[in-house]
Structures are given as structure tokens and as C-alpha cells.
Design brief:
By secondary structure, this protein is α/β, with parallel strands linked by helices. Among the domains are: 52 residues, no CATH class; 177 residues, Rossmann fold (3-Layer(aba) Sandwich), CATH 3.40.50.2000. It contains 14 helices and 13 strands. The strands form 2 sheets. Strands 7, 8, 9, 10, 11, 12 and 13 form a 7-stranded mixed β-sheet that branches. A 6-stranded parallel β-sheet has the order 2-1-3-4-5-6, with helices on both faces. Helix 2 runs antiparallel to helix 3 and helix 4 crosses helix 12. The longest helix is centred in the N-terminal third of the chain and has 21 residues. The termini are far apart. Keywords: Membrane, Transmembrane, Transmembrane helix.
């Protein structure tokens, strides 16, 4: 009897240890669920640290318990089908004649492996499917080369016992050629530095859907332009629904937008990624100007060569388009001798009208480089209230030129409450002189305008300034939070809770 009790106690202990071993904890602050689904982990409520954005280490991801068959996976019309388990570690040098191979051409009729069956493919079968997927692109193109290398590397990784890849798919074409587009280039640079893979499917949601069919467990996000996402949501063949189990789950579909008006995701503002900070609940990605700044500083005149003048940004003087009355410029010029200049290439035809201040001098500047050169020779860059968020403002700060940032809206009872401010450049609301002069505009306060301009002209010059949130390190922290740590599926369930109209839309 005693031996039997000892035997059963030992057996229970062994089973407990085995269950603990096959259901390990993930990265710090993560708890695996019963299916080892990393996308559904619950994180401790802690701020993101520098350690989180080191090149992402391989976690013990694939050693997970056996999962239910595909037929038993519960369909959730509000969120999308439960993701498949990771690939079964099967080593095979030949392709099984009964295996399902992905059709790659947009006009092909062969079946596409569903997310619930691709995990049964061997590594060779997956490689063959990736090859055929890439064949649908223009042979020899830079796009095809990048996508082939990325997906091949991803395929090798997922069959390794300790490798956890993450993949982002760009349907938006703005990320394909980022020359001259610092916002987009900065995001791609952050993904590279974090070892997050990405592929391009420009203007082709179907190709993105096929990538997701093969790599459903690895795809963290599919990024569209707003009209593309809106079209996908309305397309029964694009988004995951009860009638299209192989579509892209809505909680993985994001738009990338500068526009503050469109909200294409039915899940709400959080599924719109933006390079600029705002108060509408969108997900702030931001961008870095460090790389551009380093190049500019070696090319432009530093503080010793500055002229005692103010450069007026995008000098569109109309009775409805300026925060400062024309008389402010003329009165300040008469009282202090301050000179105001503007570049013709940054202004519209309005600059030639009678609304133009008499003491505003037009400079010949035929290119953005010429404009920047003229800014670099000035002592202050002055905003009129629009356009919003121009890169020239950050370039000026990089070159040591302060910015006068008009405050367009504020709390009348507490005008100093910056959380209620709407400014020409929201990124700079929290900064102080000598970098940024935030001035209440549109209230006829000539004294505030004069104090800011004169103060900037007399201030000790600084050589260069990059806002803390616009460093590459800061961008990488946000990107890691968005595409690795944040549980978007859980947030989607909360967004849909009780919303019958949204549920009917997704059905």
C-alpha cells in the first residue's frame, strides 16, 4: 500500500513538472495561455524599459502543449479566427504529394493553405510556398528580392525550436520608396534595429492576405493607407469574416495617416498609426530626425554666421490664415528694426497681395535646400498657424534656430494648461525657450508676440536641438510597444463589447 502511494505521488509530481515545462513563461511580464499564444499574453502594468527594445531575443515559444484540431478552434466573428499553433517540427527533404501548396498569381485558382493548416507543412513545403508567393511579383525587382529574402529567413526561423519572429506587412505604397520621406524611413529603420521583419505588398491586399495565410502566427500587423483599409473592411474577400476564414483579422489591420479626419478602422482611433502626436486617441509612432540632422549640421552655417532677422514660415498672409495681424510685423519692425523675410517657394500667391507686411522681404529660394539655407542664416523661425507639423521646423531646431509656435486654441480660464493647447506644431507644446516660444495667438496680444520675437533675437544661440521624442531610440521604444508588446486582440474585444452594429458589420 505504501509503495502504491509513493508511486502515485511521484507520478503526480512528474506530471506537474512536465506541465510547467511545456507551458513556460515568456518574456518578463508575460504569461502564456494554454495554447502558448504569444499574441494573447497579459503583461504586467509597467513602463517600457530600455531592455525591451534591445534586438528581440528568441523566446522558448514553440515548445508548447498539444493544441486542438483545426475543426475545434472556436470562431469569433468579432475578432477573427483563433490563430493557428506554430509549425510542427517535421523534417522532410521531399514534398508530400498530398500537401497543399499556395497559389501565388492573383489570377491563380489553386487553393491557398488556410491559417489552420499551414502549421502542418514541412519546412521544405513552406519554402516552396514562399517561392511561389514571391513569383507573383515582378521577377528581379527590388521588391521581389527584399520579400524573398525576408520570407525565406522567416521560414527558416519558425522551424527552429527557440526562434520567435515577428512580421509586419505593408500594403501602403508609401513605405516602398522612402527617399526623402523621413517619417516612413524612420519606422523601417526602427523595425530593422529591433529585428522585426517586414514585407511590402503595395496596393495589393490579396498578396498581403496570402502572406498572412502562410504566416498567420507571425504577422503582427498589416498596414494600409486609410482608403485601402476602408475598402478591405467592406470587401468580403479581404477581411476575416464568417464567410472568409482566410481573410486578415480586423484587429491586425492598421492605417498609417497624417490626416486627422479619417478613421477607417471599425475598431476606432487606436488602429490608426500616426507620425504626429495628437489628442484623438490614435497610436503615436513618431519619427526620428537624428540621421537627417547629423547630415545637415555639416552642411549649413552655424550660429556665428546668423543674420539679425526672422524667417516667416510659409508666409500666406490672409485675413483668415494668419495668427498674427499684419500690423504686428510692421509695428515691431518700426519699434525695434526687426527684419522679416520669407522664401517665395514656401509661400502662395497671397504673399504678393496687399495683405503682405510692408517690411517683409521676399528671398529667392527655388528648392527646399535653398529654403533651409535661408532659415539657417536667420535667428528665429516664426509660424503663422499653418500648415501643421512641417519638417522644416525640426530641421531649424537641428540647426540651432528656435521656433515661435502659435497657440491656436486654449482653455480661456486656464490659458497655461498645455494639455488643452492646439498649436501649429503639437510636438513642441512642452518645450521652452531658447528652443520653442509658445505664444497665444489670435487674441490681439501684441505684447506677447513682441516679447517672444525680441527674446529669441537676443537669446544666447544654441548649436543644435533634437526633441527627446524624435530620437531613434524613442521611436524604437514605441515601435516595440506597438508591434511586439501590445495585445491588440484583447483591445479589439473591449472595443467591440456591446457594439451590436459593429458585430453585425463584422459578421
Amino acid at each position: 500500500m505504501t509503495r502504491r502511494i509513493v508511486f502515485y505521488c511521484s507520478l503526480a509530481t512528474a506530471i506537474t513538472i512536465l506541465l510547467w515545462y511545456t507551458n513556460p513563461t515568456g518574456p518578463e511580464g508575460a504569461i502564456w495561455d494554454s495554447q502558448g499564444d504569444f499574441s494573447r499574453f497579459e503583461r504586467l502594468n509597467r513602463p517600457l524599459s530600455d531592455d525591451d527594445v534591445q534586438p528581440l531575443k528568441a523566446y522558448p515559444f514553440w515548445n508548447t502543449p498539444e493544441v486542438p484540431d483545426a475543426g475545434s478552434l472556436e470562431y469569433d466573428p468579432m475578432v477573427g479566427a483563433e490563430e493557428p499553433p506554430p509549425p510542427v517540427l517535421v523534417v522532410s527533404s521531399s514534398v508530400s504529394s498530398s500537401s497543399t501548396v499556395l497559389a501565388m498569381s492573383s489570377t491563380a485558382t489553386a487553393s491557398i493553405p488556410s491559417p489552420t493548416t499551414t502549421h502542418n507543412l514541412t519546412e521544405t513545403e513552406m519554402s516552396d510556398s514562399v517561392d511561389k508567393l514571391v513569383q507573383s511579383l515582378i521577377p528581379g525587382s527590388q521588391l521581389a528580392s527584399h520579400n524573398r529574402k525576408t520570407l525565406s529567413r522567416l521560414t527558416r526561423c519558425i522551424y527552429e525550436p527557440e526562434c520567435e519572429p515577428n512580421l509586419v506587412v505593408f500594403v501602403s505604397p508609401r513605405f516602398l520608396n522612402t527617399t526623402g520621406f523621413e517619417r516612413e524611413r524612420s519606422l523601417l529603420r526602427a523595425l530593422d534595429n529591433l529585428n522585426i521583419s517586414y514585407v511590402h505588398s503595395p496596393d495589393d491586399p490579396l498578396w498581403a492576405q496570402r502572406v498572412h495565410s502562410l504566416f498567420a502566427h507571425q504577422v503582427r500587423a498589416v498596414i494600409f493607407d486609410p482608403p485601402q483599409l476602408q475598402a478591405c473592411v467592406q470587401d468580403s474577400t479581404c477581411m476575416h469574416t464568417a464567410g472568409n476564414l482566410e481573410g486578415i483579422p480586423v484587429w491586425k489591420m492598421f492605417s498609417y495617416s497624417y490626416d486627422s479626419t479619417s478613421t477607417p478602422s471599425p475598431l476606432g482611433e487606436a488602429w490608426t498609426l500616426t507620425p504626429e502626436r495628437n489628442s484623438r486617441g490614435r497610436t503615436y509612432v513618431g519619427y526620428s530626425i537624428e540621421e537627417t540632422c547629423a547630415g545637415m549640421r555639416s552642411s549649413f552655417q552655424q550660429s556665428a554666421g546668423r543674420i539679425d532677422r526672422v524667417f516667416v514660415l510659409d508666409a500666406q498672409f490672409t485675413d483668415k490664415n494668419t495668427s498674427w495681424p499684419v500690423r504686428f510685423f510692421e509695428d515691431l519692425g518700426s519699434e525695434t528694426g526687426t527684419q522679416f523675410v520669407a522664401a517665395e517657394s514656401t509661400a502662395s500667391d497671397w504673399i504678393t497681395t496687399s495683405l503682405k507686411p510692408a517690411n517683409l522681404v521676399d528671398l529667392t529660394a527655388s528648392s527646399p535646400q535653398d529654403v533651409l539655407l535661408q532659415v539657417a542664416k536667420s535667428k528665429l523661425l516664426l509660424g503663422l498657424g499653418g500648415p501643421r507639423e512641417l519638417p522644416l521646423v525640426y530641421e531649424a531646431l537641428c540647426l540651432g534656430i528656435p521656433f515661435l509656435n502659435p497657440v491656436l486654441e486654449w482653455d480661456a480660464e486656464r490659458p497655461g494648461d498645455r494639455s488643452k493647447w492646439v498649436t501649429q506644431n503639437m510636438e513642441l507644446n512642452d518645450l521652452e525657450p531658447p528652443y520653442v516660444y509658445n505664444v497665444l495667438a489670435g487674441n490681439g496680444d501684441f505684447g506677447g508676440f513682441q516679447a517672444a520675437v525680441v527674446g529669441a533675437m537676443r537669446a544666447q544661440p544654441f548649436e543644435s536641438y533634437v526633441p527627446a521624442n524624435m530620437t531613434q531610440r524613442a521611436v524604437e521604444k514605441r515601435v516595440a510597444e506597438i508591434f511586439v508588446h501590445r495585445d491588440w486582440r484583447k483591445e479589439a474585444r473591449k472595443a467591440m463589447d456591446g457594439n451590436m452594429e459593429l458585430k453585425s458589420l463584422l459578421l
